[in-house]
Structures are given as C-alpha cells and as structure tokens.
Q: What sequence folds into this?
C-alpha cells in the first residue's frame, strides 16, 4: 500500500509540476519581468493547491467509476528481468563494500 | 428496442446552492449514440456524472432496466463506462497495462484474466505498443485511447464521453472518431464539436440552464441553436 501511495505521488508530481510551470509562465507573461515576488508566489501556490484538490476529487471519481470500493486489488508482480537483477546486485555489492571498507 | 437509459425529473443542486439540473427527462436506446450540446455551465457534465451514480440527485434513473439505488450502484458502474474530459485524472496507475487492468480487478477478475483483458482492449484501441509505459509520458491522443481502453476493459453497455476531442489535433480527432464509431456500445457524448456530433451521433440534446431546451436530429439542433461559429 505504501509503495502504491509513493507511486501515486511520483506520478502526480509530474502533472502538478507541469501545471505549476504553466501557471508561472502565464504569470510571467502578464508581469513582463522575470523577477518574482512573495505575493505572486503565494498566490500561485494557493491556486495550485486548490486545483490539486479539485484534481484529487476528479481522480477519486474516476476510480469509483471503475469499480473502486476502497481497497486496491493488486495486479500480479512483474517478472524479475536481467536489468532488475543487475540493479539489485549492484546495490547489494555497494552495501557490502561500504560495510567492509568502513 | 430496449432502453439503455431512462431518466425522469432529474434535479440536482450543488452544496453552494447552484441549481445545476432542473427537471431532466432523457432516454437512450441500446446501441444509440446521442450528443449533448449546451453552453459551459449548462449542466451537461453534472448530468453525465449521474449516469453511474457519482452524483446523486432527485428523480428516477434506470440503467438497462435497473433503477439506480445504493444496492445496484456497483452493477450500474460496470454497465456505464465514463471517459472523463481530463485524461490525467483518469490515468492514475504507474503503467498503462496496470491502469487498464484496474477496473477488471475491481470487478473481481483474477489477476491473470484482468491482465489478459487489458492487453486485448489495448490492442483494440491501438495502444498494444505502450503496455509498460508510464501514462504521464504519453501524448494527449494516446492518453485518451488508454482512458477509453480502461473503460472498455470493464465491458460496459453504455459509454459516456465527456468532451472526448478536447486538446486533440485534427488527425488524432479523426483517428478517435474511427475508433468510437467501431465500438458497438450505446454512447452519450458531451461535446462542443459539431463535426464529431454529426459523424457519431444520430440524435442531439441541447442543455440550457439545467433544462433540456431542445432535442432531435443533430443537424436540426445545430441549426436551431446556432451551434457552429463559421
């Protein structure tokens, strides 16, 4: 469950970051200057929060529409492939090296 | 012909007091496609959110002969597939394949069957090449196809599409139209796109301030309400 929440956050960070970027550009276009102000930043953060809240509502609606009943049904885990094994071995080797050297 | 949707006297007021729907009578036959026109804020989206019980107003709603109640809600949500306007809201899982399998898993299919069904519908919408991709890296047209696949994977009898061509370029709109025309389900299409409505729907309904102001042949409604700007 924790991993799923982290995946959700990771996924929507991109979407929210993109929205923040567009809002910043829109603000800069009408401000005519690159220099920011605290007031502008506070306004953008406030609107971004409200929009993210609205989006969260939309996502929850979309989940309900596809039969979500409050409990995630896990898909079977993906099979372990060569790059996964290589990544795991590298991490393990790194940890062992640190343990031996320090 | 059997009725896919039958609605009488639907009213809905938002918590802030806005009366969004004010006595809607509506029907849709099995296999029929209807376009919903109307100005922004006229109640179209609020209306379609009632079709699978995401919003609950006053009035009688029957889907495929089933009255919409707390007891029938799950059954009705598997019969009515809603494709939302903003695909980013609809695609929330880490990969395309997992996202499309989300609905079938909730329906109680085994993980193997859910993934098989997801692969089949992704092939049908032309997205079989993107199974392991992250949805947020797809183009707008690809996201829309995956969103439609996610709904088709639930094997619905009715498809509800909220502004399906928004943000899409003309070639992508054309491809989407070909895909939608190939789907046998009854369709309710909320749109401002008169071309899409003409090509896809056999009937149009015009919303105005939470009421149905007109209903009939698509061309007749477009002309009566001046719904083209050229």
A:
């Amino acid at each position: 469950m924790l991993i799923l929440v982290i995946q959700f956050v990771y996924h929507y960070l991109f979407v929210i970051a993109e929205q923040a970027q567009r809002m910043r550009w829109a603000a800069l276009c009408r401000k005519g200057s690159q220099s920011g102000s605290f007031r502008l930043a506070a306004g953008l953060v406030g609107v971004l929060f409200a929009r993210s809240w609205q989006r969260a509502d939309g996502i929850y609606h979309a989940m309900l529409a596809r039969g979500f009943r409050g409990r995630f049904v896990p898909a079977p885990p993906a099979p372990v492939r060569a790059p996964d094994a290589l990544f795991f071995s590298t991490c393990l080797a790194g940890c062992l090296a640190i343990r031996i050297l320090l | 012909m059997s009725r896919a949707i039958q609605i009488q006297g639907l009213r809905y007021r938002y918590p802030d007091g806005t009366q969004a729907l004010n006595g809607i009578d509506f029907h849709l036959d099995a296999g029929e496609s209807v376009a919903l026109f109307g100005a922004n804020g006229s109640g179209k989206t609020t209306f379609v959110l009632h079709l699978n019980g995401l919003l609950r107003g006053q009035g009688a709603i029957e889907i495929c002969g089933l009255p919409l109640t707390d007891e029938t809600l799950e059954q009705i949500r598997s019969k009515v597939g809603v494709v939302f306007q903003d695909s980013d809201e609809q695609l929330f899982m880490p990969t395309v394949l997992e996202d499309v399998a989300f609905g079938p898993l909730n329906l109680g299919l085994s993980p193997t069957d859910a993934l098989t069904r997801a692969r089949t519908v992704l092939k049908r919408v032309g997205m079989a090449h993107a199974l392991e991709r992250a949805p947020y890296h797809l183009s707008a047209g690809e996201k829309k196809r995956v969103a439609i696949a996610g709904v088709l994977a639930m094997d619905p009898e009715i498809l509800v599409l909220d502004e399906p061509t928004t943000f899409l370029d003309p070639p992508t709109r054309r491809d989407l139209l070909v895909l939608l025309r190939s789907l046998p389900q009854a369709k309710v299409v909320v749109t401002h796109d008169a071309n899409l409505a003409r090509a896809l729907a056999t009937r149009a309904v015009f919303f105005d301030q939470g009421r149905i102001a007109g209903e009939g042949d698509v061309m007749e409604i477009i002309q009566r309400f001046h719904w083209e700007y050229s």
Remarks:
- The first helix of chain B runs from residue 44 to 50.
- Chain B touches chain A at residues 49, 52, 54, 74, 77-78, 81-82, 84, 86, 88-90, 92-94, 97-98, 101-103, 105-107, 111-112, 114-115, 134-136, 150-151, 154 (CB under 8 Å).
- Chain B has one domain: 32-49+74-224.
